[in-house]
Request: fold
Amino acid sequence: MSPLTAFTNGIYKENPIFRLVLGLCPTIAVSLAVSNGIGMGLAATFVLVGSNLIISLLRKLIPSEIRIPCFIVVIATFVTIVDLTMEAYLPQLHQVLGVFVPLIVVNCIILARAEAFASKNGPGASIMDGLGMGLGFTLALCAISIIREPLGTGILFAAPDLGFEGIRLFPAEYAASVVTQPVGGFITFGLLLGLVNLITMKKNDKHGC
Amino acid sequence: MRQLLVILFSQALVNNFMLSRILGTCPFIGVSQQVETATGMSLAVVFVMTVASAITWLVQNFILNPLNMAYLQTVSFILVIAALVQLIEMVIRKSSPSLYRALGIYLPLITTNCAVLGVAIINYQANYTLLESAVSGAAGGLGWALAIILFAAIRERQRLAPVPRAMQGFPIALVTTGLLAMAFLGFSGFDVARFVGL
Reply:
């Protein structure tokens, strides 16, 4: 697989959220605001690229019987780097994402890419795969949070760490706070997933396959 | 004693791991096709969450804190959980073949269930004692079990319903989870401490 296909693969054809449906917990829990989605997405992208690179370099040294624990240690190391860096430089984002930052370690996307791609491909392609998957994850988080943030709070693109209060679309008393609850997350994501399925099905029908 | 009751109610119902904290979604959607398999998975989760809560507390307080290595928390917790799941699998296989047949295939999946690592970190952040951590783990597991068994029962009925083609599978499962979460929203704001008379 060429590096370019490895990169674009993760963004649409095998988008981790909308096509593979992996890593659901952070998707629903974090997609309350676009800034959270971007923060979480970039953190996961960093971990994906780092762990894919290291695992791809070590793929001939790791015995296949104990590969899963080895992968987890590599992933956990990168998660610790992200966790401590975020706590130091983006404290408010770290506070909002909370337990979901250390939980990147059990995000199925990362272990799945290590197992399915990085342990079988060279470092260059693995980096591109990590970048593509990470960006696909980030874009999916943004797509969900761009619906939930304004519906739930009336504000769009609020980013407390950057001192940006966001754009107020309508007064707070008209906002449906239930959208920012888990309820809104599950339903918004479910409907969006249905929409993506519908578009894919229409496209496949047209091509006759 | 009352403190333990507060932890039990708040971890199992008010802050339900699945429907309020959103932890453990992948197995929740993946293993909820039938009530029977959902029950097997929940037994395994309750068991692992209880034991993992106690063991990670010991690791945190007797290894990481004295050595000033709190930054190794994520790495050490996930390794402890992975090793623990393997160990439990081996012990159950030797000691109780019937339990192994019931839980066997679910146990390896639990390592990547974020509710297990989640409860370990939540216990640490809440500064629980050893007993409180274990109760919190068990309560969290029971709450997750309640959610997945209810959900599996709904899905068994849903198989007979005419769902639009685009919504079949994951989308309708997520919307259903949303409605279930709405029911559990009724517990939010429930003052557990006053309820048990603390």
